[in-house]
Design a protein that fits this description.
38% helix, alpha/beta, 8-stranded mixed beta sheet, 10 strands, 312 residues, single chain, Inosine-uridine Nucleoside N-ribohydrolase, Chain A
Length: 312
């Protein structure tokens, strides 16, 4: 049976590839896509989600724009990585996927209410929509099987020295989701930095020879130039699709159950995720945290998805 999934995202180049993987693989039943302000404004992230669903041939998946700012802090966007559109690189036309008139949080709520079984939420942007959902509709906790999150790190950060962007963008929301009682699995930078888009990966995608493969190469080439400029990476890490790959094949991701906290007050560490990997703090384990990625399994899934969708 396919896993019913709601994707909450902020496309973003890596979000775009996560959408393709979620649509392509038969193990995933993608029920809805909500977007949030993060890599770009919520209007642009919703447009980008519509673009990618159109390219994937999934025009029937509803897309709605959600929260346009964090719960507390001012909005910071990741345009220094993702560009003015949020998906700079290829030239996109107008999408043929409509924008659902509901607020993204209500789309998530309605999708959960209509499901006959608990639904997995894959959250690969700031967690504002999910925290807002649990505030507005606390009964929805029982309708969520798990929240799989691209966020945080057991090591260093990227947006700041110790904070990964998605958590930094709304740490109060991240802390509320972590403390909600809904099971969470966290895929942090320590994992996604193992999924580098090397020249070999780009060559494998390019060799597929389809228009979709060409667009993916253009997206990843722009993304790589941004990463090199900002952090000096020779190849960019493809963060977000790991969450979907884990649902398809849990063996992709080695995980440990630990006590996890979100830093809200540190002058230099706000937004950091603090994982008690060695049990030094006597915290009750409250989250699954990824540690090791099976790179071969991951890239086979990701490139296979581009191949399947590109061949129509």
């Amino acid at each position: 049976m396919a896993i019913p999934v709601i994707l909450d995202c902020d496309p973003g180049h890596d979000d775009a590839l996560a959408i393709l993987l979620a649509v392509a693989h038969p193990a995933i039943d993608l029920r809805a896509v909500a977007t949030v302000a993060g890599n770009q404004t919520v209007q642009k992230t919703a447009l980008n989600a519509r673009r990618m669903l159109g390219l994937a041939g999934a025009a029937g998946v509803p897309v709605a724009a959600g929260c346009d700012r964090p719960l507390v802090a001012p909005l910071e966007i990741g345009d220094y990585v993702h560009g003015e559109s949020g998906l700079d690189g290829p030239a996109f036309g107008e999408p043929d996927v409509p924008l659902d008139p509901r607020h993204g949080v209500e789309l998530i709520h309605d999708t959960l209410a209509a499901a006959e079984e608990p639904v997995t939420i894959v959250a690969i942007g700031p967690l504002t929509n999910i925290a807002t959902l649990l505030r507005r509709h606390p009964g929805d906790r029982e309708r969520i099987r798990e929240i799989v999150i691209m966020g945080g790190s057991t090591e260093r950060g990227n947006h700041t020295p110790y904070a990964e962007f998605n958590v930094y963008a709304d740490p109060e929301a991240a802390a509320e989701v972590l403390g909600s009682g809904v099971p969470t699995t966290w895929v942090g930078l320590n994992v996604s930095h193992q999924a580098l888009v090397t020249s070999d990966v780009l060559e494998r995608i390019s060799a597929l020879g389809t228009p979709l493969a060409r667009i993916c190469v253009e997206l990843l080439t722009f993304f790589g130039s941004s990463y090199h400029r900002a952090w000096g990476f020779p190849a960019p890490p493809l963060h977000d699709p790991i969450t979907v790959a884990y649902l398809i094949d849990p063996a992709v991701l080695t995980r440990v159950r630990v006590g996890l906290r979100i830093e809200l007050d540190g002058a230099h560490t706000r937004g950091a995720t603090v994982a008690d990997l060695h049990g030094r703090m006597d915290w009750e384990p409250n989250a699954e945290v990824g540690t090791v990625l099976d790179k071969d399994r991951f890239w086979d899934l990701m490139i296979g998805a581009i191949d399947v969708l590109g061949r129509g």
